[in-house]
Design brief:
230 residues; 5-stranded parallel β-sheet; single chain; alpha/beta; Rossmann fold
Length: 230
Amino acid sequence: MAERAVVLVSGGLDSAVTLAIAKDAGCECHAISFDYGQRHRVELESASRVSRRARVASHTVVPLDLRIFGSSALTDTIDVPKDRDADTMADGIPITYVPARNLMFLSLAVAHAEVIGAASIYLGVNAVDYSGYPDCRPEFIASFQETANLATRVGVEGGSLAIHAPLMHLAKHEIVQRAADLGVDLSVTVSCYDPDLLGHACGRCDSCQLRRAGFEQAGISDPTRYQQPR
């Protein structure tokens, strides 16, 4: 019997590749996505497409309205930064950071894993092209795994939960190449922080710039649908 795994699927490039990696490892994958009041809600449609194409065992969408707290360009009426150069993107924590988002997402993923008997959780965080988010660092993932095993029945009763972040140390072009190697259709993914209602990417936010550069550096054709031709 295949090992069960909960995979966080946002609908973006990184989570689609992470799901493919979990499938390639032989896991029975249970996708989990979050409807957290994000302005780029088209990513939920993408998450559904990605999950269906991967033929996951289940796909759960959790309602979690983080607009209550705001303070992020993704959940509040704050402009999404555009046209920032690489040095600016690497300087400090950007306004697109959603406070404690991955901490909450992982906590709910752990609860789901306990219920369905999954021993692993996969997520697509990245410490190389991560735009300065504190909850995408290896220190956080290691600390959360320890906490999860202290705070759950499975951990207390002698089992364990493993948190896998297979893209943690890959540059974006390496992730794009991994997608190609695994046959992942990235045309159905949405990474943009400010897409239009049809899911067309702005091409100018931090996420779009990192994604575009990844395809260029990998020498692979970019299937992203942009709002305006480059």
